[in-house]
Design goal:
72 residues, mainly alpha, 74% helix
Length: 72
């Protein structure tokens, strides 16, 4: 994972994913660009998933009863 992705906030990642989705839906986007955008989006999703998992683990650690039902 690149340093740029590691430093990106979840909000920025979701905003970029929204841009990527719109570009992929545009019929003017070339096949080559679509592959590049898909690859970028996959990386963003993987990074976001990792950050969300980390936050869930932190919340679980501070939860008094250890319940994570509210976070799924």
């Amino acid at each position: 994972m690149s340093e740029e992705l590691k430093e990106m906030t979840l909000e920025a990642a979701f905003a970029r994913l929204d841009e990527i989705t719109k570009a992929l839906e545009d019929p003017k986007t070339s096949l080559e660009d679509s592959f590049s955008l898909y690859r970028e989006g996959s990386g963003l999703l993987k990074m976001a998933d990792g950050k969300i998992d980390m936050v869930e683990k932190q919340v679980q650690m501070i939860s008094e009863d250890g319940s994570t039902e509210d976070f799924r």
